[in-house]
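Hey,
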Amino acid sequence: MAKVTVERVSDKAPSNRAPSTRRARVRYAARRMFSLPILVALAVVAVVTSFISGIFGMAGGMLLIGFLLAVLPVPVAMVFHGIIQIAANAWRAWLWRHHVKWSVVFQFGSGAATALLFFSFLDFVPDKALVLMAVGLTPFVALAVPQRWAPNIERGGQAFMAGAIGGGIQLVSGVTGPLLDIFYVRTGMTRQVNVATKAAAQVLGHLTKVAYFGALIDNPAGRDLEQWLVMGYACIFAVIGTTLSRRFLDRMSDKQFYHWTRRVILALGSVYVAQGLWLMVTR
């Protein structure tokens, strides 16, 4: 957090300070944001989280956003999360490209674009505690929907609805995997079709998040070349983790896939709810 403090001090500098000096101090703060330990941790987290998502089709993104929020401001964390997840999901969709249901993907993308258009009029940047709470509660809300009411993403119009709902949640919490799972539980998809279709759809969902936090809000993130270089660095490790996960998904049965997915996301959700509450109480 020392990085953020340095940046804020530069904003409060006396008015007679030269603008070039203030800009130099801000650039210095940005460099301090990505110290060697942070870069090493980012590489490890990118591999592990993309590996987890490659097996379960979700959960890895929840872990990744938690790490990014611990070291970056919310808008920067959202852009980083979006770019890394785009790389991991795009590569996952390519590995399982013969299993992707493209009609679902395109409808989902249309819904996500609609959500982006709506939020573009709000210029809303969520508080860090709110993001953690939203991330943590998402799987519990998803699993609270009775089985008989669970939607089916393959039915007409429901992929668009999933994209619109998921797109809105994406811009608040950064992740939508657990909530979107309720649209898949009644489809009868195999684990390969589930993971591949969800990955391709999530590429479009994360694109809307990058566009929102990287271009549409006031003081957008991702305007620093160094940030993009670090994101590119992290994407390499995300692709590695995704590639390693393919063999494990092949060995898993559909029953094991759905069994462990629920338990993993509920455990992570509990951790993030606790973190969000702690932030709110200790302010």
